[in-house]
Amino acid sequence: MSTMTWETRHKLILSLRYTLLILISAIFIFPIVFMVVSSLKPDLQLLRDSGSLRAFLPVGDISLNNYAFAFERVPVIQFAFNSVFTTVVAVLASILLNSMAAFSFAFLRWRGKKLMLTLIIATFIVPFEVIAIPLLLVVNSLPWIGPEGFKIGWLNSYHVQIIPFIADSLGIFLFYQYFRDLPDELVEAARIDGASIWQIFTRIVMPISGPILATVAILKFLLMWNAYIWPLMTVRTEELRPIMVGLQYFFQRYTYWGEIMAYLTLVTIPVLVFYLALQRAFIESIATSGIKG
Amino acid sequence: MISAAESRKNAPRWVRLLVPEDAPLYQRNEVIAGWLMALPALLVLTIFLVVPFLMAFVMSFTNQRLVSPNPTEWVGMKNFERLLTVRVFTLEPERDENGAIVYADDGGIAYPRLRTFTRKNPDYPELNGLREFASWQSGENRTIILAADVVFLRALINTLVFAGVIAPLQGGLALLLALLLNQSLPYINVFRAIYFAPVVVSMVVVSLLWRFIYDGENGLLNTLLGIATFGSFQPVDWLGNPYTAMPAMIAMSAWQAVGFHMVIWLAGLQTIPVSLYEAAGLDGAGALQKFRYVTWPGLRNTAVLILIVIVIQATGLFVQVDVMTRGGPLDATQSVVYQAVQRGYDKQDIAEGSAISVVLFVVVLAITIVNRYLTRDRD
C-alpha cells in the first residue's frame, strides 16, 4: 500500500466500488432481461436456453411471433384500454379526494379531526385481502344509476374497479404530512387577503405540492395498473377486464411460456417507462415523505 | 370585531359543538368547509374499508356461507376455537402386564395409536377431533402437539416466520445498499434507479418470473449456481422442496421490495449533518465507529418506520403464495391471508375466512403495539 500514491489508491477503490455497484445491478435486472429476451424465443428454445447463459441473450430463433400469438389469445387492446381508463380515473379522483381531506386535516379547525386522523392511520394495518370478501358483499348490494337505469349490485362494471379505491389512508396521510410542513404564514397571509378556503386550496397549496402529488399519483397508478385479485373476483364480462387478468388466459391446458413472457413484457414495459420518466421525482418524494412518520 | 368567546355564545348549538374552544375567530365557514372537504374521502373509506372490516368482525362469530340452504346463525367463539385450539399431549409407551415397555418390530418403542385418544374417546373429550401437528421423543414418552386446524396453525407460524425473517433481512440489506449509494459519485443515481426498479413491477409478474428462476430442472438459479461452481452444484427444486420453498419465497420477496426501503434509509442518511462525521473523524473514529456512534443513532426513527412497514407488508403475504406454490409443498408456504382467501372465497365459507382475517388483524395489531412499546422514546 505504501508504495502506491494516493491517486492510484483512490482510483483502485473507486473502480472496486463501481464493480460492486454493477454486480448488484445485475441481481436486480436479470429477471427483467430474461423476461424480455425470452419473449422473443419459441417455447422449446426458451426452456433449453434457460439451462445456460443464453437465457440472457437474444440469440437463436428470434421473432415477434409470441407477441402476435398473445394478441390473438387475449384482447390486448381492449384490456389495455380498460386498465388505462380505470387507472386514469382512479388516479385523478384519488388525488382530489385525498388532498382535499388532507387539506382539511392540516389547515382547517374542526372538532374530531384528530380522532379521524388517528382512525385513518390505524387502517394502514388492514391488508386488502383481509377485507376483500366482505367488500365483495358490500359492492354487490350497493345501488347504481347508469345509462341502463337503476340497479342493485356493482359487479361487472368499471365503477366496481374504480370507486372503492378513490380514497386511501396512505394517500391522505402523505398529503397531510406534506401540508403540515408548509409554513403557516402562507395560508394565513392568503386568508388575510380575503382568499376563500377553496381558493387557498386550489391556488396556493396545491400548486406547490407537486412532489407529493407525484408520489400519490404513482402509488395509485401502480396499484390500479397491477390490480389482479379484485377484478378477478368482480368482473366476469370480458369487455371490462383489466390487463393483468389477461394472464389467466395463458394457463390453460398447456402453458405457453414464450407467450406469457411476451405478455408479461407488454404489461410491464409501460410501468417501467413511466417509472424511468418520473424516477427522480418518484424516488425523491418517497424519500422525503418517508422519513418523518 | 367580535371576540371568539362572544361569537361562540351566539352560534347555534351544533356549531358550538364542532368549533374548537380555542379557535381565534368565529369560524362557522371553516367548520363546514372542513367537514365538506374531508367528507368524500371519509365516506369512501367508511363504505369500502371500515364497513367491510366490521362485517368481517361480525361474520366471524356466525356460520355464514356465501350460498347456504340454512339460515345464518350465531356460533359465538366456535370459529376461533376451531382455528386456535392447540394442546400438548404426552403419549406413554405400551406396557405388558409386568409393566415393561413393549417394543415394536422395528425396535422402536411401541405406542398406542394416537387416534384412540382423538376419536371420540370419552376419557379425553378435550382431544376429540384434534390432529397431530408436530411430535418429538422425550425420554420414553412421546410429546405430541395437537391442533384442531393444523393447516391454519402452519399458516400462522409460516407467516410469523416470514415476517420475522424478512424484517431484519430486508431492512438490513436495504441499509447496506443505502450506505453504498450514499455518496456523491458520478452516475450514482443510475444505480439508485436500477435497484428501485423491481418495486414498480407487479408482484404477479415478479412471482411468475421467479417461478422460472427457481425451477428444478432448467431454473436460472440452478444454471447460475452451476456456472459459478463449475458444474459441481446439484440442482435443487427450490419451490418443490419443503425446506427451501419458504427461504426461496423470502429471498424473492426481499429482492422485489428492498429498493423501496433503501430509498427511505437514504433519506434518513441525508438528514445526518456532515459536521457530526467531521467531528467524529477529528476524534479519531474509524468507519465502523462512525457508523456505531453517528449513523445508527441518527437513523433511529427511520429504523422504527422501516420495521413497521416491512412487518405489515409481510403479514399480508399472499400473491407470491398464490402464483408460485399454492401453499405447498406439504404446507411449507401456507400463509394466513392465503388461507383466508382460500376458505372465504374459493370454498365460500365466509365465516371462517372472516375469522382468519380477524386473527390476522389482532396479530398485526399486537406486533405494532409491541414494536411501538419497544422502540418508544425512553426520556
Task: Describe this structure as you would to a colleague.
The complex is a heterodimer of chains A (293) and B (379). Chain A is 66% helix and 3% strand. Chain A has 293 residues and is mostly helical. In chain A, strands 1-2 form a two-stranded antiparallel sheet. In chain A, a hairpin with a 2-residue loop joins strand 1 (143-146) and strand 2. The model of chain A has no long low-confidence stretch (mean pLDDT 86). With 379 residues, chain B is mainly α. Chain B has 3 domains: 4-59, no CATH class; 86-147, no CATH class; 151-374, MetI-like fold (Orthogonal Bundle), CATH 1.10.3720.10. In chain B, 60% of the residues lie in helices and 6% in strands. Chain B contains 16 helices and 3 strands. In chain B, helix 3 crosses helix 16 (350-374), helix 8 runs parallel beside helix 14 (319-325) and helix 13 (300-315) runs antiparallel to helix 16 (350-374). Chain B is globular and about 85 Å long. The relative contact order of chain B is 0.10. At the A-B interface, helix 1, helix 4, helix 5, helix 6 and helix 10 of A face helix 3, helix 6, helix 7, helix 8 and helix 9 of B.
- What would you call the shape of chain A? flat
Supply the number of structural domains of chain A. 2
Question: What is the top-level CATH class of the largest domain in chain A?
Answer: Mainly Alpha
Q: Please identify the structural class of chain B as seen in this structure.
A: mainly alpha
Tally of domains of chain B: 3
The total count of helices of chain B amounts to: 16
Radius of gyration of chain A: 25 Å
Task: Tell me briefly what this model is.
The complex is a heterodimer of chains A (293) and B (379). Chain A has 293 residues and is mainly alpha-helical. Helices cover 66% and strands 3% of the residues of chain A.
